[in-house]
Amino acid sequence: MSTVTRTRLTAEERQEQLIEAAVRAFGENGYAGTTTDQVARLAGVSQPYVIRLFRTKQELFLAAVQHAGDRIEAKWREAAGREATLESLGGAYKELLEQPGLMNTLLHGFAASADPAVGEPVRTCFGRLYDVVRELTGADDEEARDFFAFGMLLTCLGSMRVIGPGAVPPPAWAVGMLGTFKNL
């Protein structure tokens, strides 16, 4: 008879596990279509435990959106450590597009921003990312705007499964729109 030794997670590790599960759930089902019970099941904990840590679904959602923004910033800072250019940061963003839950969670955050409790933190997160790109690359306003516009296009195309994991054969309009970026 063998005994299995289970390692207890610290409170911080458990919270991180819940946020990762929330990113997956909100990324797949959106804010309105996700319950705290679904997140709890994905994380392997009870729903009351989720509420004990985050109090409300909205606070859990905001933690998931913040986590997505933090992951993007960390990836960009890592890329800038090798080469501080818009191209380098764009390559890092392309890698993040392989994690559709992450980007879809941000999209759901943008869509839910009419709610003042959601909108302000989401706008702050987006503004921070804009500032990070300018800080790391020295991009001017126009270059940063173009970088974010193309990134948003890629995020939307990834959400529609035109590029990235689970992509369907791209329609003609997408091929034309992406032009030389067909390798996405």
Automatic annotation (TrEMBL):
<dbReference type="InterPro" id="IPR001647">
    <property type="entry name" value="HTH_TetR"/>
</dbReference>
<dbReference type="InterPro" id="IPR009057">
    <property type="entry name" value="Homeodomain-like_sf"/>
</dbReference>
<feature type="DNA-binding region" description="H-T-H motif">
    <location>
        <begin position="35"/>
        <end position="54"/>
    </location>
</feature>
<dbReference type="InterPro" id="IPR050109">
    <property type="entry name" value="HTH-type_TetR-like_transc_reg"/>
</dbReference>
<feature type="domain" description="HTH tetR-type">
    <location>
        <begin position="12"/>
        <end position="72"/>
    </location>
</feature>
<keyword id="KW-0238">DNA-binding</keyword>
<protein>
    <submittedName>
        <fullName>TetR/AcrR family transcriptional regulator</fullName>
    </submittedName>
</protein>
<dbReference type="Pfam" id="PF00440">
    <property type="entry name" value="TetR_N"/>
</dbReference>
